[in-house]
Amino acid sequence: MMMDDISNTTTGRRLTRAVRVGALTVGGSAPVVIQSMTNTDTADALKTAIQCAELARAGSELVRITVNTPEAAAAVPAIREQLDRMDVDVPLIGDFHYNGHRLLADFPECAKILAKYRINPGNVGHGRKRDEQFAQMIEIAGKYDKPVRIGVNWGSLDQELLARIMDANARSATPMDAIGVMREAMVASALESAAKAEEYGLAGDRIILSCKVSGVQDLIAIYRELSRRADYPLHLGLTEAGMGSKGIVASTAAMAVLLQEGIGDTIRVSLTPEPGGKRTQEVVVAQEMLQTMGLRAFTPMVTACPGCGRTTSTVFQELAQTIQNHVRDRMPAWRVEFDGVENMTLAVMGCIVNGPGESKHANIGISLPGTGETPAAPVFEDGVKTVTLRGENIAAEFVAIVDRYVARTYQRKSRNAS
């Protein structure tokens, strides 16, 4: 089934096939799904399960693990068992390269337990072996009714396919430049591999596609073309996005454009963790990207003043950080207990210029005094001033106000009503 500029009129997203991954749906009318990947040695089942749980509790709805050795494949059942003991039901995706056909065949429990397989068509073999080994993996996916992400990566493009496209381009009356050839090779690899998967018996609603590159403009161009030419669900993300602000900015710049155009059904923000940094940061960035775009809601959003010469005190900065940390820490419990609390908005403002006005626009807002202003902090709830805080305990008092507001405003879920 092909498509050309068809949109899902209920969500503004392009209409794609719906693919079940465990208990989740990717594509169709389902919301954009967030995923992440562990960086542990998968053979260490306990360490990998702990990181899977951390990612899932941070909001990763799918977690991918490397399955690259017999030891890693053998550990998958133990990882799943450990997660079940921790009451973490996140679906696990197996990431296969080079020897995936052997690992899936030799370790049937691994093949059964994984919720999805990721196959890179550039790394499954060469020549006749490529088709045979790809077919073997697809047949196993069909046997266990597993969806497959056909994940093309520009660092491991199928060289035979690339040479074929380069030859055809050289004969064209209007040849593409080198960048155009690379982009077309990425799209062709994904679509041709998907077509082969269906020929080998995998149902069309068990296929997700991705074309990972490192360049923002390359990603946008490739996914626009991929979306124009097929209706498989698409996994978005830069590969090797980078560290810190560079990785965050690059990932957001690329994916936000595509998401705004309705392209993308599941995303990963591939950040390089700073030494000692948390792997969960990429999950938080993905959530904040979707939430600030108005596509999903995960946790109350805090608007905060950037500060200027009127706000030489750091009090508002410290309070903004306190509130941001508080709502993130409380959100797992709030999500279980209350309906809709993730849509709550808060504002922590630093002076009288925009403070009261901005605070009134949030569900709960506080306007702290700037330099030389009266040492009082009015609090607004749903646009109405309810109290003025003073003294040394403003932060603790404001946190308590937030907690009372949640308990008073949001309906308790029925299973907790008793």
Automatic annotation (TrEMBL):
Keywords: 4Fe-4S, Iron, Iron-sulfur, Isoprene biosynthesis, Metal-binding, Oxidoreductase. Its EC number is 1.17.7.3. It holds the Pfam family GcpE_C. The keyword 4Fe-4S applies. Pathway: Isoprenoid biosynthesis; isopentenyl diphosphate biosynthesis via DXP pathway; isopentenyl diphosphate from 1-deoxy-D-xylulose 5-phosphate: step 5/6. GO terms for molecular function: 4 iron, 4 sulfur cluster binding; 4-hydroxy-3-methylbut-2-en-1-yl diphosphate synthase activity (ferredoxin); 4-hydroxy-3-methylbut-2-enyl-diphosphate synthase activity (flavodoxin); iron ion binding. It catalyses: (2E)-4-hydroxy-3-methylbut-2-enyl diphosphate + oxidized [flavodoxin] + H2O + 2 H(+) = 2-C-methyl-D-erythritol 2,4-cyclic diphosphate + reduced [flavodoxin]. Binds 1 [4Fe-4S] cluster. The keyword Magnesium does not apply. GO terms for biological process: isopentenyl diphosphate biosynthetic process, methylerythritol 4-phosphate pathway; terpenoid biosynthetic process. It is an enzyme of class 1 (oxidoreductase). Its cofactor is [4Fe-4S] cluster. Residues 302-403 form the IspG C-terminal domain. It comes from the Bacteria. Residues 16-286 form the IspG TIM-barrel domain. [4Fe-4S] cluster binds at residues 305, 308, 351, 358. Belongs to the IspG family. NCBIfam families: ispG_gcpE, PRK00366.1. Converts 2C-methyl-D-erythritol 2,4-cyclodiphosphate (ME-2,4cPP) into 1-hydroxy-2-methyl-2-(E)-butenyl 4-diphosphate. This is 4-hydroxy-3-methylbut-2-en-1-yl diphosphate synthase (flavodoxin). It comes from Propionivibrio dicarboxylicus. The gene is ispG.
